[in-house]
Structure to design on (438 residues):
């Protein structure tokens, strides 16, 4: 029996938030890729700062989620903190600051353009953008059963704790975690067999029928035009 | 350790995407039918398991598990870890999209190497060979990934030498714990009777 319950689903952090969530995800993915790659290729602070007003404009549509955005920006990435701090104290402070702003602007674009759509809509859009179907099937099944696997791990941890298990630096602790993982692998192996049989019995041909289709609207076209003009002028004035 | 957005130069990001695309091509060709949901579910297991805080001394670490994933999945480790890293980028903003190619290659290629080295030991199936397989999968998976991350950081410029050294050193405790955990996982799976080549 599937143990997943509605309401506790794993979902993108800003799903359904603000004006940008109403846009076609196909448009948002393409624009995100253009903007993120441009900032990723920036060689100096000016080339990064020119995109900051656009990122802040996007942010203004989801200002009600400021705490979530700040948390994701400030605390989510341990690696960025590590690079910036080592650069500030042991390497080149300019490089540290440049990397900090490049990363912040790209993550803002990612949060506001990608994560304002639901995971399912993003996967559906990737199908329209010609991402290989087999890869999308794996992504979809991964997402579909992620919650189930997570819940199984939480149950195993709860069960171990109720029997007096306290994680510490010991072989016993590592053995317990290894058995958690072994158990998850085993359960998932058998679960995947059942999923496969269920798919075959329902005549699955590799494509998921969808109820709602994307439609390019006036708002999508206006948003794309505005963003592309902003990008074009920024690249012309600051990159070329 | 996933490299963040904005850290690496453009040529490095593009090379990462080219290598990962090649790996994905081979990986996706190797899976069909029942292996599609299986790869997806095992990918979900590695995603969830890598979020566990495993204690070591006064701190705790997250495991990479790329050696273990590679040993079990073979070339399918490329799509499995690509999807897991894509979701880490989307849900938590760990890593990122432009750097997804590099991060997938850093994790999945050592997994493929581990697969070829460890597979004969798993087929042998004795307790000693399974423990050796666990140790080797951890050493290859973690240290090869750490070497890639450090080399990529060094390629940015001389100011990144210390950053690269520290990034490499940070992987040592992870490798130590994974050696123990991988060995126990292989022993557990052997006892349970499912084929170790999934």
């Amino acid at each position: 029996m599937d143990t997943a319950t509605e309401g506790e689903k794993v979902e993108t952090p800003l799903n359904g938030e603000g004006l940008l969530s109403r846009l076609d995800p196909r448009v948002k993915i393409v624009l995100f890729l253009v903007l993120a790659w441009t900032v990723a290729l920036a060689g100096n602070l000016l080339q990064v700062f020119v995109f900051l007003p656009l990122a802040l404009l996007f942010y203004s549509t989801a200002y009600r989620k400021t705490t979530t955005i700040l948390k994701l920006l400030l605390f989510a990435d341990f690696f960025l903190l590590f690079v910036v701090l080592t650069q500030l104290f042991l390497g080149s402070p300019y490089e540290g600051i440049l990397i900090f702003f490049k990363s912040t602007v790209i993550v803002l674009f990612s949060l506001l353009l990608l994560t304002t759509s639901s995971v399912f809509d993003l996967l559906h859009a990737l199908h329209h953008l010609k991402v290989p179907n087999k890869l999308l099937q794996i992504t979809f099944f991964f997402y579909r059963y992620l919650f189930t696997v997570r819940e199984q791990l939480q149950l195993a941890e709860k069960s171990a704790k109720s029997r007096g298990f306290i994680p510490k630096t010991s072989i016993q602790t590592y053995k317990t975690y290894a058995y958690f993982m072994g158990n998850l692998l085993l359960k998932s192996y058998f679960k995947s067999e059942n999923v496969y049989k269920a798919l075959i019995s329902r005549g699955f041909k590799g494509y998921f029928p969808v109820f709602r289709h994307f439609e390019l609207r006036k708002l999508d076209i206006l948003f794309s035009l505005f963003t592309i003009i902003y990008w074009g002028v920024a690249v012309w004035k600051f990159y070329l | 350790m996933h490299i963040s957005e904005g850290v690496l130069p453009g040529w490095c990001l593009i090379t990462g995407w080219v290598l990962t695309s090649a790996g994905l091509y081979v990986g996706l060709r190797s899976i069909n039918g029942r292996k599609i949901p299986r790869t997806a579910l095992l990918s979900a297991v590695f995603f969830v398991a890598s979020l566990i805080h495993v204690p070591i001394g006064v701190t705790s670490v997250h495991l990479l598990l790329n050696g273990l994933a590679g040993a079990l999945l073979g070339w399918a480790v490329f799509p499995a870890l690509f999807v897991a890293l894509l979701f880490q980028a989307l849900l938590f903003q760990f890593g990122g999209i432009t750097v997804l190619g590099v991060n997938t290659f850093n994790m999945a290629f050592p997994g493929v190497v581990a697969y070829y080295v460890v597979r004969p030991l798993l087929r042998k199936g004795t307790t000693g060979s399974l423990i050796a397989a666990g140790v080797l999968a951890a050493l290859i998976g973690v240290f090869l990934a750490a070497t890639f991350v450090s080399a990529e950081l060094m390629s940015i410029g001389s100011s990144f030498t210390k950053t690269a050294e520290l990034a490499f050193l940070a992987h040592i405790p992870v490798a130590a714990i994974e050696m123990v955990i991988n060995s126990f996982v292989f022993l557990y799976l052997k006892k349970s009777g499912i084929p170790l080549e999934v």
User: Anything to note?
Assistant: The radius of gyration of chain B is 16 Å. Residues 127-154 of chain B form the longest helix (28 residues). Chain B has eight helices and two strands.
